[in-house]
Amino acid sequence: MAAPPKPGYKAKIFSGNVNSFSEINDFVSSFSKSGQILSENSLYDVDYYIDSGNFMLNAILSGSVLGGFSGGRIHTISGDPKTGKSYVIYSAIKNFQRDNPDGFVWFWETEGSGTKDRMKGQGIDITRVRIETPMTVHEVSIPIMRMTENLEASIAKNQKVPKILYVVDSLNGLLSSKALQDVLDGAVKQDMGHQAKELKLLFNFCSKRLLKTNSTLLCTAHVYENKETGQPIISGGMGSVYFSSTITHLRKKIERDETTREATGVVVTATTLECRHCMPHQKTEMKINFNKGMNPYIGLHGYATVESCGVGKGRMMDYCDLLNEAVVKKVFNVDDIKEGLVDLDKLEAVISKDKKEVLDQIIIGNIRNGQCVMIGSDEYVKGSGQKLAFSDSAISRIIDGKVTSKGLPEKQAIGNPSSSVWVSDKLQKSIDNKTFFSAEVFTLDVL
Question: Which domains does the chain have, with CATH numbers?
C-alpha cells in the first residue's frame, strides 16, 4: 500500500494531453528532478577528442581524422602482448598534455613494465603524470570514485574543473581483493569470477561519473581466442565490452629490412570491435618504426583524391645540380666559384623555365645533398640578391673545368607549388619518394 502524501503536498495536475510534449515534460519534472530535454543537455556532447597519434586510427575511432578517443568516455585497446597497446596509450597521453596544458593524467601501471625513458621518448611530460602501481581493482575504482565525486560537487557549484585522463595499463594486471587475500594467506585458489565482477563494477560507475565530469578512461587489455569462432575475447569479463565507447583490437606483423632481413619495426592492424561514434569493424594499418616511431600519415592517400580535395600531385624530375648549371651556363668563372659566393639572381636568369618555377625546391634538394648552403636565409626569395656558397665536396667534383655527377641522385621529388601547406618532409621520413609522389600530397586544410 502506498504511503500517504506528506502534509502540504500538492500534486501537479496532468491533463493527459499527449500532443503537448512540454506539458508532459513539466509533469515528469515535478517528481524526477535529474532529467532534462536532450537538446539542452550538454553531457551527451563530445566537446573534445584525444588524438591517438595516427590520423587513420582517429578516423575509425571517431569518424574524423582530426578526432580520436572521445572525451568523457571509456576506451579499451585490446590485443596480444607486444602489439603496440602501450605505444598508442603513450601517444594519447602526450597529445592530451599538448592540447590540455592544465589537464591531469592519472596513470595506473599494473604490469611493472613501463620506464621513464620510454615515456619521455614518446614525448610525455613526466612531471605532469601521477603514476601508481596497484595490486587490486579496488585500488583503481575507489580513487576514481572519490575523485569524480569531488569533481561533481565542484560542478554543482558552477566551479571550473580540469580535464582528467585516467589510464589503466593493463586491466589484466589487477587482482580481485579475494585473490590477493588468498595469496597473502598462502593459499592458491581459482578467482571464480571475482576479478570480472569487480572490473564490471568499475566500468559501470565510471561510465556515468566520467560523463558527468568530462573525464576519460583509457585501458589496455589482453585477449584470448574463442576456440569455436576464432574471434578475440577480452580477458577480465564483459565489463569493458558493455561500457566502452570504443574497443580497438590490435594485431601485428614484423617489418624487416629487405636486404639484411633485420626487424625494423612492426605493422599494426587496428580493428574497431566496438565504436559508438561511427561504423564499427573498420580496419587500418599503422607502421611503427623502432627508430622513427609511428608515421601518423600512413593510409591517408587512399581517402583523399585530387578530385575530392583539389590538391595536386607531386612529381619526380631529373636532379638539378646547381654547380653544374653555374659552370655550364658560364655565368660564373670556375675560380670565382671555388673562392667566393654565387649570386642566385644571376643563376636564376639563365636556367630553364621549368627549373625556375621550382628553384626554391631545387635549392633545398642541393642543400640536403650537402652541395651548398644559403647565406643569410634558408628560404629563397626571388630578386633579393641572396648568395649561395658551394661546399668543398661539391667543388671537388670540378675536374678540368667540367662537373661530374658522382654521388648525386638521379631524381628529385618536387611538390605541387599550388598547395600552400606541406607535410611532405614528415611523409618522406618513412615513405620512399616514388611511392609518395605517385599518390596525393596532404595539406592541413585537407586534414
Answer: 41-296 (3.40.50.300), 315-414 (1.10.10)
